[in-house]
Amino acid sequence: MRAAVLHEIGQDKLEVLDDVEAVGFGPGKVRIRIRATGLCHSDVSAMSGVLPQPAPFVPGHEGAGEILDVGDGVTGLTVGQRVLLCWLPACGVCPACKRGQTQLCLAGFMNAGTPNFKRTGGGSADVFGFAGTGTFAEEVVVDAGCAVPIPDDVPFDIAALIGCGVTTGLGAAINTAKVEAGSSVAVIGCGGVGISAIQGAKLQGAAQIVAVDPVESRREAALRFGATEAVAPDALADAKQRITGGEGFDYVFEVVGKSVTARTAYETTRRGGTLCVVGAGALDDFLQLNMFELFFDEKRILPSMYGGGDVLRSYERAIALWRAGRIDLASLITHRVPLAGVNEALEQMRTGAALRTCIEI
User: Are 209 and 274 in contact (CB under 8 A)?
Assistant: First the structure.
């Protein structure tokens, strides 16, 4: 089968190979034919080494498709069923799951160290799947918990977005920050996740939502999705002064994953306000705060992992909101490419030309 493979961390292009085989099928597993997958910035971060990931690997973790085969012991899933991929399935028995914080379950991360694929030629070399999945491939084999059934009326491309970016952004605003009606919000970084955070803040009734991004097309898009104003990063200080009288925003979302933008977000948050960190950053990138400001400003700093809530409930909520026309998911997909055009999708991500590129497989 075909899959897009990164041979070494630090390379900026993928090679689409046709001698890759999905491995590991057996009890408790399902084999899925991928139909659509989104390109998330986390994939690019793993390629560059910002996020830890063994190589060679197949990127992709935001996918949807149909079940081809079901292993022994799997219940509730059948051949032909339409599913989205959950890259962080909950085990249900660990302390985090028992506390109801299923998004903090580490069971899914254990899969990242086990090869998902192998090359059928050239010595049958092992190939990993990013985040234990690897959706830039025609087929994947994953734990049954990674396969979440979707209703027949949800297209594969929409389902793929719900599998990561939409759930992360909406959840940051609704679950983690719990944006209050009438509040002021700033969102720094307006790709697919940032736009979803904007939609979440709008749903919660925020009065002012300022989108911050260096790319003009993304700022224009943010206005269509619910932002009341969109500015370049160098105009954020002026927006803070005009909109909040210099006090700072009630909620600021950092959706870039860099300490420099997190520091800006902290300074843009009012005293007693909430900074919500959504972007996934590097292990060696440190955010510096002095102990006096941490105490004196009483700003809440809330990281948001995968939307900060039970992902299965979040999927259902996103589908319900999409059906009701309360959120726009189709317009998040600004570009479409086949698997052979995956490097074109990477360029669209890096330049900021795309909110989300759908890779159709």
Answer: no
Cα 2 from Cα 19, distance rounded (Å): 7
Interior/surface letters 279-291, b for 16+ CB within 10 angstroms, e for the rest? bbbeeeeebeeee
User: Residue 224: what residue type?
Assistant: R
- What is d(CA 307, CA 164) in angstroms, rounded to the nearest whole number? 9
- In this predicted structure, what is the pLDDT of residue 130? 95
Residues 20/68, Cβ–Cβ less than 8 Å? no
Residue 341 near residue 349 (C-beta atoms within 8 A): no
Block mean pLDDT (10 aa), the chain, length 361: 96 96 96 97 94 94 98 96 95 92 85 88 83 96 96 97 97 98 98 97 98 97 98 98 98 97 98 97 94 96 95 96 97 96 95 94 93
Residue 330: predicted pLDDT: 96
Instruction: State the pLDDT at residue 258.
Output: 96
